[in-house]
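User: Teach me something about this protein's shape.
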Amino acid sequence: MLSLDERVRLAHGDAWQAEGRLRVRQGGGAAEFAGARLMASGLGHPQWNSGGLVDLAAFDLAATRAWYAARAHGAGVPWGMRVPAGTAFAHGRFLFAQRNMALEPELFRPVAIPHGVVIAKARESDLAVLARIDAEAFEEPVDSVTPWIAPHIGARDVTVVLARLDGQPVGASTAIHTDDRARRCAGIFGVGVVAQARGRGIGAALTAWLVEHAFARGATLAHLNPNTDAAARIYTRLGFVETTGFDIYVDL
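Assistant: First, the predicted structure itself:
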């Protein structure tokens, strides 16, 4: 039986490869060879073209480079590699340590949606609003996040939700539903709230909404990556526990 750490690592690989398969027409894709599970979005940003190390002894850097060089219809894409934390990885430049957290259904602690907040699935007409929220929340250019978000809306195994406070859009998040190596899981990504609406419990409510719906459709694990201690505390209140993370490398 897989340990929770092992299952979470597999679940992240499942989610990233699902992202790649969503984007084949845009020059993305997914593949597994040379000791790694690879995905690409086809976009020119390394954070959206991500490999996951599976077997250090079998890892073939040249083959991996060649695969990424063929993405974006032959133009190539910049990319990074997720390496299990603490692994002695001699390639590329260490960028940062990524934390992982996970939640099993029996530990889930729902939260109430704050007064004045309505959370609902996003529609295609919400793309510009979603991009604006994501760009502000994560300090990225709107033009770069828009093509990342667009394939999510309406995709069969992706749920995108939008939070409105007193009718105004203020937060968004996405769940990637997978049934692959880690069995039925949901990756919760891009939980973002605009500055003027923070501190009201909207991020927790967005996460809980997605987790509750994922478990209702059969997921037995939810996983995410807190990017701050404050975010980790929010997820802990929902029942998430810390698991072994990744070391992120670029410039391989």
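Now, about its shape. The chain has six helices and eleven strands. Residues 103-244 form a domain with the Aminopeptidase fold (CATH 3.40.630.30). If you'd like, I can walk through any region in more detail.
User: That's plenty for now, thanks!
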